[in-house]
Amino acid sequence: MSGVVLSGRSGRVLRAVGWALFALYCVAVATIVFAPQHVDDNEAGSRLASLLDTGHAQGWLPGFITYASIEQLSNVIMFAPGGFLLMLLLFCRARPWRRVGVITLGAVAVSAGIELIQTAMPERTGDPLDVLMNGTGAFIGSLTAWGVHGLWMRWGKR
Predict the structure, then answer these.
(1) Ramachandran category for residue 122: left, alpha or beta (phi over 0 → left; psi -120 to 50 → alpha)
(2) Model pLDDT for residues 67-82, shown as the tens digit of each residue
(3) Are 138 and 104 in contact (CB under 8 A)?
(4) pLDDT, tens digit, for every residue of 23-56?
(5) DSSP character at residue 34
(6) Is 15 exposed, middle or buried (0-12, 13-18, 19+ CB in 10 A)?
(7) Other C-beta atoms within 10 Å of 36: how many?
(8) pTM of the model
């Protein structure tokens, strides 16, 4: 299954909207990852830690749901939209697995650069696990886009 090549005015408009959404997404991610301090170094982060402690102490929250696991999941979630959008926007004639691979490796490279920059920031730290989680998010996002595209193509043939 290869991507749909949109042509004409509607194709140009859809691609422009897609790239605009991707640019907004990049600005949002940059705002989070290059903030002078961790995004959770505030009252909301303290409240979440307190809620987790209470849930574990009272037994209604499973032990595997920890602050660290939520932070890791948030890294996956943060990069999934980028993988989704890029899968739809790039390399329409390339094989889908090739696009998934390029997008995932690109996300890992970008994430490694982000983590390297964060190590140089006074109130931030770099974490190699974030690179893995961000790459996983881009992988999941691109696979999701591939699946949605396949469903869309089947629906359109009816």
Answers:
(1) alpha
(2) 889 999 999 999 999 9
(3) yes
(4) 999 999 999 999 888 777 778 778 888 999 999 9
(5) T
(6) middle
(7) 9
(8) 0.84
